[in-house]
Amino acid sequence: MQELTIKIKQVDHLMNIAGVKHNNIRLLENHFNVTIVADNEKIVISSENKEVKRKIEEVLTILLEIAFKGISITERDIIYLLQLQEADKIALFQQIYDKNKILFLAPFGKKIYYKTLTQKYYLEALEKNDLVFAVGAAGTGKTYLAVLYAVKLLKEAKVKKIILTRPAVEAGESLGYLPGDLKEKIDPYLRPLYDALYEFLGTETVDSYLTKGIIEIAPLAYMRGRTLENAAIILDEAQNTTNKQMLMFLSRLGFSSKMIVTGDITQIDLPKGEESGLLKAIRILKDIKGIETIEFQKMDVVRHPLVQKILERYEN
Q: What is the mean pLDDT of the chain?
């Protein structure tokens, strides 16, 4: 059994690559079916297969470069890196964690980066277009990055307000039987939007902006009859809009505004036979300049690694 040794001068870089309880190393061992020992400022790979050792060295070299930038390496990063390697696109991984590509500096100094190449293309599309559709599986960052981009525009004074909306479609539960007034019934369905805002702006700022009307969160029906100017407007869960609702929403777009429409076309909760307004909009608007559609795949899922496997099994 021949060994390949990669020396790492800084212990904190070695610990970062190895991961909590050496979970990152275990992932590499299982993927390549080799033995890897990370200890005493070095990583040692034991294998008789030269091609396997070449691939591991390629992965570890990139991970070491990421560690030098002070970026925490997660199990999800390892999985995505290996997927890119299998697709012969591993060289593109560096584009995600370019040290000059920090998307946002959240409260308490948290640095937010792209997690996948599709997320990078998504943000680039938002910069270039006034209307962007983002479709794909749950957990790919569609809504999270849409809210991040809206907050970024607000902080840069490129818009005056943020408007977040969802269709009030019952997903197996009746809204009418929930306690409280309309706001109290709808708020739980808008919780992912609140959570993202709190992460990017902090609780006090969000609450203040909601009171002042700088941030507005409301059901889609509340958009009717309005023209939304100087605003970042996000329609989430758009797969549950009807054609009439989608047309109503898209026609609200005013000057100096950005509109982001997100949805997962595998989770349509409309009545049987009702066409999704999201699907029709993407189909009939695809050739218009200033409108772009970004499609997220299962490999873009950035939640727990098991989520990707669960989605694959259910799809099959």
A: 85
